[in-house]
Records
---
Amino acid sequence: SQQGEEDPQALSIQEGENATMNCSYKTSINNLQWYRQNSGRGLVHLILIRSNEREKHSGRLRVTLDTSKKSSSLLITASRAADTASYFCATVKAAGNKLTFGGGTRVLVKP
Amino acid sequence: EAGVAQSPRYKIIEKRQSVAFWCNPISGHATLYWYQQILGQGPKLLIQFQNNGVVDDSQLPKDRFSAERLKGVDSTLKIQPAKLEDSAVYLCASSLIVGNTEAFFGQGTRLTVV
C-alpha cells in the first residue's frame, strides 16, 4: 500500500519555468522526504522535512508541509533540462518508522 | 564515502527458477531496506531491517520471498520460485538512524523473468 500519492502524475514544462508537484498522505508522520530518480538509476535524496517544520529550502528546491491537510509540495524554480526525472515523496510514519514511497511525478523539462 | 553496493546489476531467469540479490549498505548504517520497483511505479517496501532485526515485512510475499541481514551488515534477498510478475528493479537502501535520516540507495538489480 502507498502512503503518499503524488499529483500530477506527469508534468511537462519549458526550461526556466517553475515546476510544482504535490504529495498527499494518510497517517501521521515523523517526517516527509523527497527523492529524484533519473531514468534507469537509483533514487537520490533531495530534502527531508520534519513534522514540526512548515517549509524548507535547498538551492532551487522549496518544500512545504501542511500536517493538518496531510500534504506537501515540492517546487523546483528555474528548471533545467537536467531536472528531467521522476520525483517521489516518501513518508516515515510516526508509528513503526516505515519509509514508504508514493507513485511519483514524472517531470519533463524541454530545452 | 562508499555508497550502497548491489549485485548483480541485471539478471534474467526463467519462471520457477530461484534468484538471489546481494546488498552491502554504507558502513555504520543501522537500517537497511529492500524495495521492489515495477516499471512506471513507485518503490514498494518489501522489508526493513534495523541492525539484524526485522522492523517491517508486511508486504513481503513470504511464500516465495525471503531476506536476511547477516550480522547486521550485508543482506540477501531471495526469490524462489520466481513468477513473471516478479520482473522489476530491486532496490536496496540504507540509513544511519531508522526513520530520522535520509536513505541512500544502490543502483538496483533489474530482474527479468521469462
---
Amino acid sequence: DTEVTQTPKHLVMGMTNKKSLKCEQHMGHRAMYWYKQKAKKPPELMFVYSYEKLSINESVPSRFSPECPNSSLLNLHLHALQPEDSALYLCASSQGRQETQYFGPGTRLLVL
Amino acid sequence: EDQVTQSPEALRLQEGESSSLNCSYTVSGLRGLFWYRQDPGKGPEFLFTLYSAGEEKEKERLKATLTKKESFLHITAPKPEDSATYLCAVQGVDSSYKLIFGSGTRLLVRP
C-alpha cells in the first residue's frame, strides 16, 4: 500500500482566513514533504520533515506554517494568504529522505 | 548546480505509435532518478526509480532506462489512457535529499 491521503480536496479562502491542509500516511514512512505546484510547472519543495522534525524549509513565507503532530500526520496551516498562493498543494512521504517519494492527490487551493 | 531537462515539452502520438521521452540530467553524484506520471489536477503517481547507469525497469507498456547523462522512458504501443504529463526527477548526493524536477513532457495519445 503506497497511499498518501490529503484533505480537503478543494479549498477556497479569503486573504484574511485561517485554514489548514492535512496529510496522512500509514506506510511507516519517516520523511514527509509539502510541495506547491502551479499550473504546467513541476512541484516546488516547501518543507521536509524527517522523524517528525523540520529538516528543510525552502525559504517559504511565514504565512505558511507546517506541523508534524506524529509520524503519520502532516499539517500545513495557512494564514493571510495572497492570491498568488493559489496552487495545488501536494504532500509526499518516503521511507527515508533518500528513498522514493509517494505523493498524495493534492489540495487545490484558491485564494480570493 | 543540479539540473534536469526533459524533451520534448509535448508529444502527440497515435494509439499504437511507440516513442520515447528524454530526461537529461546534470548532477554531482546521482543518488536516484525517478519517473512519475501526473494527470491534470492530481498528484504525481510513482512509476520507476533508477539508481545506476545500465539499469532498466519495465511496467506494462513503459520501460525506463538510465545512462550516466540521461534517462529514457519508452512507451510501446501507447493507449489513450497513457495520456498524461510525465515528470523526471533526480536526487543528488549533495542535494540534501531534495528532488530536482524537470518541466515534464505532456503526452497525448489519440485513438
